[in-house]
Amino acid sequence: MRKKIIAGNWKMNKTPKEALELVKLLKDKVNTDKSDVVFCVPFVELIPVLEELKGTNIAVGAQNMYFENSGAYTGEISADMLTEIGVKYVIIGHSERRQYFNETDKTVNKKVIKAIEKSLIPIVCVGETLEQREKGITVDFVRIQIKSAFQNVTSEQAENVIIAYEPIWAIGTGVTATSEQAEEVCSAIRKVISEIYDQNTADKIRIQYGGSVNGSNAKELFGMADIDGGLVGGASLKEDFSNIVNY
Ligand code: 13P
Q1: In angstroms, rounded to a whole number, what is the distance separating the alpha carbons of residues 168 and 178?
Q2: Alpha-carbon distance 143 to 153, whole Å?
Q3: 35-51: burial string, b at 16+ Cβ within 10 Å, e else
Q4: What is the pTM of this model?
């Protein structure tokens, strides 16, 4: 039985002061027995948020990292910097990073490999545009993203990776994929994992859905066979996040 995992992706929102206010509001409201809970906060908020969450079971994640160990990469953050302060997860290949910051399937793969090597759990994001969906190539496209992300990753490593299926047309739009649409792709992703590795790995890996998840639609989405939780944007910045976690 896969434990659900629900992560808030705060994106570029909240100053450190505002971040602490939100964490204080949420930390006693979210139930971490039923699901793993992760707050993926901006880099400058990682340390204060980690401090504030000490003694809770809520984990902290970063929203990006670089694939080199260290060196002349101005503006980048390494895996060691994250693990040393207690970060457990890192979002990799979010569609916004692919769209605005030239993240490619190749850099996503390099980052996944580096994160695993450094004992960070990658939350690897995949998902199609509206145009691709309308052309009927959603599953083909997502299959390519998954195959590339998992190149040179062993099955033992893969089973701990989190995949987030986030259809781009559902991100921040208020248009949620129906539970059937989300399940169709999440189940296809699990099938790809079984093809790359084996059924055992596919049965273990956790696949989140992301895209306009809120307290009202979480229960139906998370009730689908292949949806193991959510990656939540806008609603993770509000008290509603606790309704999602406690769906
Ligand atoms: P929204 O929940 O705001 O649609 O964002 C989803 C997302 O991109 C999470 O990574």
Answers
A1: 14
A2: 16
A3: bbbbbbbbeebbeebbe
A4: 0.98
CB 166 less than 6 A from any atom of ligand 1: yes
pLDDT digits (tens, 9 = 90+) for 130-140: 999 999 999 99
Q: Quick check: is 195 catalytic?
A: no
Nearest alpha carbon, ligand 1 atom 7:
233
Domain with 204, as residue range(s), is 5-245
CATH number, residue 53: 3.20.20.70
Task: Report CA(71)–ligand 1 centroid distance (Å).
Answer: 32
The predicted-structure confidence for 91-104, as pLDDT tens digits, reads as follows 999 999 999 999 99
Residue 166 annotated to the active site: yes
Q: Give me the catalytic one of 45, 52, 94, 183.
A: 94
How many distinct structural domains can be found in the chain? 1
